[in-house]
């Protein structure tokens, strides 16, 4: 437990930057939180850390049990880093079509990886994880990030408080994609406690077949247990090609190399901003482009 507790200072407290060149409305500020500036290089460090720490404190995870979960990659990487430090055995169910960079990182960190159907996304990975637990319940602590309150509470106690303080309590809109929905649920819930006039906008792909790893098309996907369907004030859809184009635009005009999900979040935030008279629109950049080498090379003709 002490080894995990010592890592708390490496989680959260990420920088918030202003998007200037691509903002179509100069009367509105558009801000993005750079979540790769923490252990594991993604927003998932927050949830993974809180899930592990809570499970250890509650006695759900102990020596002799393997932490098991389904992931599209980033939560798995965060789990793998924390588990390596704490000496916890880790088993991950991962869709086979996750990026090669993520596969290599998980292997290097010593995670036991079970690859699942690329056609079932993380829904299929969850099904396989549940089957593994059912066949040998004493061997695993099933973290189940999609239904674990420690996921959204990490953002309730962390991300939201940071945004409220970093914007000097001026945030008017929070925009975020929906995957496990932990970021949106936890951050949104707390922001409304700070100021009930803040508008929460949820983003999702415009079809079930999309290129944003970890995102869910809610109409066709399994809805995460932690998702609060009463929380969002409205929803916007994002096309994968819009996100891919935004990756290029952000690199050339803002000097940042970002991931597809980060780009999709920015597409949504800019759509919100262009229709406002004034305000402060905030989104999250879950990770950068470092785990998407093949896609980045293709987009930039490298």
Written account of the structure:
With 302 residues, this protein is of the alpha/beta class. The chain has 2 domains: 2-37 and 151-299, Rossmann fold; 44-142, Rossmann fold, CATH 3.40.50.1100. The chain has 10 helices and 10 strands. It has helices at 2-5, 44-58, 74-86, 100-108, 121-135, 149-166, 182-194, 240-254, 260-273, 293-299; strands at 16-18, 28-34, 66-70, 90-95, 112-116, 140-142, 173-177, 199-205, 234-238, 279-285. The strands form 2 sheets. Strands 1-2-10-7-8-9 form a 6-stranded mixed β-sheet.
In percent, how helical is the residue content? Answer: 40-55%
- Give the beta-strand count: 10
- Beta-strand percentage range: 15-25%
**How many strands, what sense, and barrel or not for the largest sheet?**
6 strands, mixed
Evaluate the radius of gyration. 18 Å
Average pLDDT level: 93
The name of the CATH architecture of the largest domain is: 3-Layer(aba) Sandwich
Q: For the terminal residues, how far apart are their CA atoms? A: 44 Å
Runs with pLDDT <50, length 5+? Answer: none
Given this structure, which CATH class of the largest domain is correct?
A: Alpha Beta
CATH topology descriptor of the largest domain: Rossmann fold
Coarse shape:
globular
Q: How many structurally independent domains?
A: 2
Write the layout of secondary structure elements.
Elements: H1 2-5, E1 16-18, E2 28-34, H2 44-58, E3 66-70, H3 74-86, E4 90-95, H4 100-108, E5 112-116, H5 121-135, E6 140-142, H6 149-166, E7 173-177, H7 182-194, E8 199-205, E9 234-238, H8 240-254, H9 260-273, E10 279-285, H10 293-299
Parallel strand pairs: 2-10, 3-4, 3-6, 4-5, 7-8, 7-10, 8-9
Antiparallel strand pairs: 1-2
Helix pairs in contact: 2-3, 2-6, 6-7, 8-9
């Amino acid at each position: 437990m002490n080894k995990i507790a010592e890592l708390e200072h490496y989680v959260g407290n990420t920088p918030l930057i202003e998007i200037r060149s691509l903002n179509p409305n100069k009367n509105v500020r558009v801000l993005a939180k750079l979540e790769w500036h923490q252990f594991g290089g993604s927003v998932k460090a927050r949830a993974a850390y809180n899930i592990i720490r809570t499970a250890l404190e509650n006695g759900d995870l102990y020596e002799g049990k393997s932490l098991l979960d389904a992931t599209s990659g980033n939560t798995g990487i965060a789990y793998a880093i924390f588990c390596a430090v704490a000496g916890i055995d880790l088993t991950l169910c991962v869709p086979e079509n996750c990026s090669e960079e993520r596969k290599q990182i998980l292997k290097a960190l010593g995670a036991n990886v079970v690859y699942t159907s690329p056609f079932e996304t993380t829904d299929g990975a969850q099904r396989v994880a549940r089957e593994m637990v059912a066949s040998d319940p004493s061997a695993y602590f099933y973290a189940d990030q999609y239904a674990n309150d420690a996921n959204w509470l990490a953002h309730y106690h962390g991300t939201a408080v940071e945004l409220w303080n970093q914007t000097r309590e001026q945030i008017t809109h929070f925009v975020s994609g929906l995957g496990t929905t932990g970021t949106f649920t936890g951050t949104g819930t707390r922001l409304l406690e700070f100021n009930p006039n803040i508008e929460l906008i949820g983003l999702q792909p415009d079809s079930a077949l999309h290129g944003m790893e970890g995102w869910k098309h809610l109409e066709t996907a399994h809805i995460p247990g932690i998702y609060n369907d009463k929380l969002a004030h409205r929803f916007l859809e994002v096309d994968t090609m819009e996100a891919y184009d935004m990756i290029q635009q952000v690199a050339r005009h803002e000097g940042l190399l970002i991931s597809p999900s980060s780009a999709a979040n920015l597409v949504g935030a800019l759509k919100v901003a262009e229709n406002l008279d004034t305000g402060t629109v905030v989104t999250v950049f879950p990770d950068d482009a470092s785990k998407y080498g093949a896609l980045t090379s293709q987009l930039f003709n490298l």
